[in-house]
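chain below, 304 aa
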Amino acid sequence: MLLLVLAAGGWFGWQAWQARAQQEHDIEAQAAQRIDALEQHLATLQQEQRTQAGRLQRADATNRVLREELLGVGQRAALLEDSVSELADPQRSGAQALRLDELELVLGLARQRLLLAADLDGARRGYALAAGLLDGIHDPAWLSLKQTLAQERSALDDLGADPRAIAAGRLQAFAASLPPLPVTVAARDDAAQPWWRRAFARVIDVRHADTAVAIEPGDRAAGLAALQLELTLAQAAAERRDRDGYRQALARADGWTTRLWPDTPQRRERRERLRELRALPLAVDLPTLGTTLDQLRAMRASSR
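prediction:
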């Protein structure tokens, strides 16, 4: 009985151990299956993560392109808005812009005619044409420009004749007044002369040795030709508005007057006229020249 009990107990114990071992084996198998399933799931998650990362990169690139396109669209919209605002601005109308361009061109030409050629009449006609163009602009913003143009035209009208023409006319009149000058000083009364001078007056011509006046016909002809040449050179320098050449020629002409005529009131009067001629201006002096053009350019630049 004891042996049977022991045998039965051993058999039941072995059965229980076998069942427990089988149960543990099943648990390990199930755990291995779960681990495999988890690894497969993890691999799937990693693949999906890589896929999602790629999608995010592509989406980021697409967003960057869209952002750049949006910025470009915004810039084009801003340019279109500026263009529309310029077209809607009355100061930017096509006719007015064309008139302002023409006004600037006319003012520039009138200024250059006065500076380069000293053409007062041409400059005045140009400013009159500019005034007519400016009167066609009825915008009150250009009222100050009209006032500036009126002041510049008034200053231009106050200049009178061309200084070069005045100098040339006075120089020509001076050249025409030279021949009547006396060649010798008027002789003294014979009664007041010493007896020996009165006795030999018809035989001997007495002159001071230090006199500079040319008496011989050949010397006088050469001197008169040189004087006329210097006056012609002064006339040419005045036409060129060469102030230095003009003054130098008149200075040499003054030297020839002392060589050709004696010291008389007439010669002193001619030398004084020469000094006045040397002081005459040849160029036009207008400090306000070009103020209208400068103001027009400044106003157009500020309105852009």
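Residues 184-189 have pLDDT under 50 and may be disordered. The longest helix spans residues 2-88.
thats it, cya
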